[in-house]
Amino acid sequence: MKIGVLSRDAKLYSTSRLVEAIKAAGHEAQVIDVTRCYMNITSHNPGIYFKGEKLEGFDAVIPRIGASITFYGTSVVRQFEMMGVYSVNESVAISRSRDKLRSLQLLARKGIGLPVTGFARRPDDVEGLISMVGGAPLVIKLLEGTQGIGVVLAETENAAKSVIEAFLGLKTNILVQEFIKEAGGADIRCFVIGDKVVAAMKRQGAEGDFRSNLHRGGSAELIKLTPEERSTAVRAAGIMGLNVSGVDLLRSNHGPVVMEVNSSPGLSGIEAATDKDVAGMIVSFIEKNAKPFKTKTRGRG
Which helix (H) or strand (E) holds 78? Predict the structure, then answer.
């Protein structure tokens, strides 16, 4: 098989591990920077060009689309889909998961446990918004933030009002969520492939930081999931339509709650914490499932 890894940097751990796993399985690998691609959008002969050459002969692609290039990156994935190339995560599913508000609404509609979450536009509604999520302390998140950037813990109502009003004054979209104190600054990253959690780790925030992102100095360790946590992670990934995802959970007093479903989960932390060949599992999934024009969400936007 010929498998493309859609990534802007071949030196990134996740990208290099995927290339290594593809080659170890006896397949051909090519790293493709989607920002260097341009497309011929026609009805009968859609094409993608990379550094002046037409991309042909691919059986599958693995999108590693950064949040900052979601719009253009998913357009390239969509073009591959039009050409009949199997994408591990489809363009619609990536776009769906990247829209934090939309993804939470979809999860809520299907009964997935979530932190109480509020969304508003006008500063006049700040007091009602704070009250709705249970008051301070509470968490304020930029809709466009990633890796813990743009996430603020407001410990008092006055602080919450100030931060929310400042963000709204800048015409920035934010979510306000209840603070799950009992989680103790830790979350659980469940790595889901297909309909199984193949690896899981507990991420603990650095001292004095409630955010557990490894990029922000957090630590990770192996963890045993409960059946409810495992089921919640698999259901959340399925609702997003993602074949490969990182589902982030918090352990609350009322069961597991989903914080986010990530369409391009990193491999470094999960492989180190669990000592599992997650990259190899992704390649095995492709071997079993890749077929021309196999696109579940075709025609659904």
Answer: helix 70-82
